Amino acid sequence: MDDTPCQRFFREPSGPLHRQYEALRAVFLDGLSQKEAADCFGYSYDAFRQLVHQFRQGCAVGTPPPFFSSHAPAGPRLHRARCRLGRSSRPLLTPAP
User: Fold this and answer.
1) CATH code of the region 1-63
2) The model's pTM
3) How far is residue 62's CA from residue 77's CA, in Å, rounded to a whole number?
């Protein structure tokens, strides 16, 4: 079975909320530091620290953000590069030229 479309979903997020999800997932599940994830996913360190803080606050009160809302605005098309996550690698997301 060809899982290429499924793999593309994770490697090439179609919008900013999906990109945030992947960056936060890299910190909380894959073990990247906030600095590494910020660099890997194209965020400034300070902006990403704020994103992590807001996410933690939302989870603490039981209201994490709805990353996959059908009402989310589409962001710029992103292309992928690679960043290292332990033994596996995940995409570095940057605006496509």
Assistant:
1) 1.10.10
2) 0.66
3) 31
